[in-house]
Amino acid sequence: MRRILFRWRGFTVWSYPAMLYVGMVAGVVAGNVAAHAARIDAFRTMIATYVLVVPALIGARLLFVISNWARYRRSLRLIWSRQEGGAAMYGALPLILVLSVPLLAVLHLPLGAFWDVMAFSILAGMFFTRIGCLMNGCCAGRRSGTWLAVPLPNCEGMWERRIPSQCLEAGFAIVLLGAATVAWRWLPFPGALFLCVAAVYAGGRLVLESVREVEPGGGRLTSHHVISMAMILLTLATLAVRWPK
């Protein structure tokens, strides 16, 4: 839709990286507010967030590339191109969850409370990142003749009437952010908010993944469907074990 946000004195600002940056800033701000509300050290929380950003970006990009390998294998230089959009949050989450354990121990931050805070950071960042996806054309919705469909391009620049999947996911992130804010104080243990948010997000993503455009040669069941189902089972099982009897 608008892959180039603007040009200034010969410098090109691409929409997706720009919105990804805005999303990261929004995530840090949301995390700082949540850390104060949770009464954990906000400065150390910010440091941990900054440290985890790099592996999060790498993991998210790699999963996106693997999921769209049919396209990237024809031109490997596009994998790390600054002009390319596309990242998969599911690729970031397992990596930073594992890395956060020793990192939080060093910073003397509680694991469960930190990830409750990170739920707000992730959701705030997700909203702006999905706007970047919309502008770049990645994660495009499938063609449709329903009332919900609007003229939109995919990452190849092909305009069709499509389900606005990026807008639906951005809206879902905002709704989930609001629900998390309300439900936080009612949850029984640190980490419960993150687990609930992860379970609900995975359930919503299971549905929203089905409205995305199918990659050439791909099937209706994608790796993200499988990851979503696994996340639902894992988070619900953890909640069931940890929930006070």
Structure description:
The protein is mainly alpha-helical and 245 residues long. The protein has one domain (4-242). Helices cover 63% and strands 7% of the residues. The chain has a two-stranded antiparallel sheet with strand order 1-2. The protein has a two-stranded antiparallel ribbon with strand order 3-4. Strand 1 (4-8) and strand 2 (11-14) form a beta hairpin.
User: Total number of β-strand segments?
Assistant: 4
Shape: globular
Q: Which sheet architecture does the biggest sheet show?
A: 2 strands, antiparallel
Write down the secondary-structure element order: EEHHHHHEEHHH
Question: What would you report as the Rg, rounded to the nearest angstrom?
Answer: 18 Å
Strand order of the largest sheet: 1-2
**Proportion of residues in helical segments:** 55-70%
